[in-house]
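[job 4471] stage=fold_predict status=RUNNING
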Amino acid sequence: MHTLVLSASATRTATASSARLLCFMALLLTGNDSLAGLVAHFRFDEGSGIIATNTAGAAHGTLSSTGAAFVPGGISGNALQLDRTFNGHVLVDDVFGFASGDYSVVAWVKTQPADLTPDTIVLGKHQSGSENGYFVFLNTTGPLGQPGKASFFSSPGSSTLTSLTDVNDGAWHQIVVVAQSGQNKVLYVDGAPVEAGTANSPMVANAAPFVVGGVQGFGAPVGLFTGWVDEVQLYDHALSERNVGFLFRHPAGEIRAQQPLKPERLLVAHWSFDEQSGGTVHDGVGGHDGILSLNGASFASGGVVRNALQLDRNQDGFVEVGNFFDFQNIDFTVVVWVKTPPGDTTPDTVVLGKHEAGFPNGYFLALNSVAGGLAGAPGKASFFPGNLGATVTSTSDVNDGNWHQVVVVSRVGEDRGIYVDGAPVEASLPYSATIANLASFIIGGFSLNGQPAGAFTGHIDELQVYQVALSPADIDFLFAHPSNEIRHQLPSPGQHDALLAHWKFDEPGSTIVLDHAGDNDGTLSPSGSSIVAGGIVNTALRLDRAASGFASFGDRFPLSGEDRSIVFWLKTDPGYDLDDSVVLAKHEGGFENGYFTVLNTTAGGAIGQPGKVSFYTGGLDISATSTTSVNDGNWHQVVAVYRVGQNKTIYVDGAPSEDLEPVFPNSGNGAPFLIGGVNSSGQPTGLFSGWVDEVQIYSVALGDGAVDFLFQHPGMSLPPGQQN
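[job 4471] inference complete, writing structure tokens
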């Protein structure tokens, strides 16, 4: 159990069982947490092949023909194994020169125990034979370095950094180099603190390629490393000590820039906690994914909607998101559902926050009393905005073992209030500004000496963050519909929310498909339909036409006088060739009416092509058909766009569109909107076998930029102001 300290005069000692002495000290930072631009991330999680994928950019690597392979047992997932006796290396290209400006290099390495081989090069951009570029190496090279240590060479070589820690013990070690232009460069091993530092001089540029496991020799790369390398990241900015610590705790994580919150986007984060396993919590709105602690954090059934996050403070359970959501001088709302063990009155039970313990700063939402009883109350929910006197505390108990909605609404210059289980507000106080910090936003805890600390036991679900003050009606709506979202926008003449529906299919075990944008919930067919793992994001809808599988949503979404865009992801078995495979439709079989998207051909071959997807809106000869095949066993995004009186287009896997055809007046019908089939003789009929995920419907014609955004962010939807 951890101690939460709010100020020097408001402390509470840890329990005897934890026996932990807490010392609060200033954090020495290098760089700015908000400026970390990731330019490369080689995860080495490929199972085979010769390409090492850069998941953060376009500069991928190629494995040497011998001495290089992907193997299990990495620090996270697989790793790269290299053998210098076979010239093992990965060749990237003439990139990542860092001849000017700040930069950071991160790598995990493991060698055979007591390996003291000289010239063991982990990675670099260096042409052998003269002082140029840079490289990370182990042991010694010429007069540089020390046996067993990690070093960083950057021209001129007189400023080489060498670690204090040995890295040749047969275990995984993190090596991080951070350089600031005109200031200094430092070396870390296994997180903070800095182990070596010196003044940073301009680097001698070269045209050598970036190589993992070696350097450029005379005309060809030379492999100079035997062992394992994993999770190589390069940034075009200087990471902070907090960043380095975060990446040490979460080797596969990434440091993302804290971008200014866009004024047109009110909902900035939504964690539904519907994952069934794994170490990542996905934000379905803003990309602020969180990482679960190694212990005391898991996904569990029985959430307020589907699954939930389960935390145990006795095992230091938490979710670390990163340095986001400062909320300096803007309105905001935090919505969360919590459930604790019945009668739990453990002090300092922190639900979420961005707070560094030890002094007034940031904010957090807590249960029971905090700061030795100076704020909060047993069984109640409280929000601390940086000083004890401004803490607002609920009147309702939330520790009875049931799910409770807790909402905090803050209005700049006005007030800050707390709600429990809908409106009305239970307590409010005049607004006071929060004190900025560099702490991570943590679910289930707070930051203690720069490290996340778990401080919650129980369950958390459906956490949403808004950069607007929600109204009591909004809060009541979210109380009645916990997984839905408030998508109205800040006042802007002529702007409206065009998202009509968004089905995520993240309801394992349920026969109801929830609409996350409106009230268009659907029902699965009695057979041939289920929610399964392996979706493009979380789970997906699995359909079997042999059992007439479909999802029905009632008589909705006609093409009647307004533009329309339909976005969905599909996957089939490789080589899937069944005709009449309707993915979604509002169509009564037997005559020309309504619309549908279909895979392969239909109408006796008059519509569609084998392996392609087509968009039909009336008339046999004017369907828009893709040029890309979508029956290869992989997930594909399909977007069908209908412009009233103009044309219809179809996209596959982002822009540009693959076909454009004219449209004619659409014949309406009373058929239900179905995913996976059509209405036949008045009855829904399943016609598709495969997987469907992340279906969205908009009342506008999406443009290329919007289509590309949704292709890059499958679980997100477009906010008002970006729906064109």
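[job 4471] summary: Residues 1-36, 259-264, 489-495 have pLDDT under 50 and may be disordered.
[job 4471] exit 0
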